[in-house]
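Recap from last week: sequence in, structure out.
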Amino acid sequence: TLIGAIDDVEKRVVTVIGAGVAGTMAIEKAINNKAHLKIIDLSQKRLDELRSIYGESDVEYIISTDSSIETALEESDLVIGAVYIIGKQAPKVVKNSMLKQMKPGAVMVDISIDQGGCFESSKPTTHDNPTYEQNGIIHYCVTNMPGAVPLTATQALNRATLPYILELANKGVEQALNDNKHLANGLNIKTYEIVHDAVKEALNV
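Predicted structure tokens:
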């Protein structure tokens, strides 16, 4: 199945679950390929922000519930799972029972697999053996997906992290953490103790 539109061929349906950084990139790719897009997220504020950017044409903005996810999956040709919670394992938002209602041959891509995956049916795969089939649904759950494009992935990571590295180097750790709340929010361990609440919870500390 080709996602892009061809003349009068019916548009394919792409569902993106989770509208964070990775989800937003998937949203943009789906729009560029002229798919019919369903965006599912827990935050109405985030959905409203996306609506102001992408408009109403061929895009649905859906609050995440078990029912809304199941309904979207029934129509979907491609499902992108991009659910991410800082410091925690990804919640399983797509249950195994939901797969039975999907189109045979539909594809599910679990971007959250590095955090345990957001589909109950997800299991880690590799670039050498990237897919498997369950209930007639193709799963792509490759860990470290950016590893397929290591040069550009490294360049992008360097660009994102370099400002924080420079701030730490120029100011010292304590001052940099005091000046930058985002940097401070990423601190996991201080003076031999876990200080990040989500990490504490994940490790039962």
